[in-house]
Amino acid sequence: MSAFAIAHLRPAAPHADIAAYMDRVQATMAPFGGWFRVHNAQVEVVEGSWPGFVVVIEFPGMAEARAWYDSPAYREILPLRTRHIEGDTVLVPGVAADYDASATAAAGKAAA
């Protein structure tokens, strides 16, 4: 089942380190089957507030997502971004293709 690395990144001034990070990040994802689903996208806010932009990277599973984030190659370039862009990053498992929210709702009703 797919897993995702999702980052909510705040606006930042252009910097050579950020360009270097962006130039190198794709190569760190490839060994773990990662690919961008959303990159540097401005969002359309329909509820609440969301300053900045979003990045979504899909991986084959949580093991690959964790292995990428913890990999020496990614850890080497990560400070190029984090020194200049504030943000939040999460790793999250996806749901199966046949996921049905009504089953989750039924379990919630039964527990209530």
TrEMBL record:
- InterPro entries, from UniProt? Dimeric_a/b-barrel (IPR011008), DUF1330 (IPR010753)
List residues of the DUF1330 domain. 2-95
Q: Which domain of life is it from?
A: Bacteria
Gene3D superfamilies linked: 3.30.70.100
Cross-referenced PANTHER family? BLR0684 PROTEIN, PTHR41521
Question: What protein name is recorded for this chain?
Answer: DUF1330 domain-containing protein
Q: Which organism is it from?
A: Streptomyces lydicus
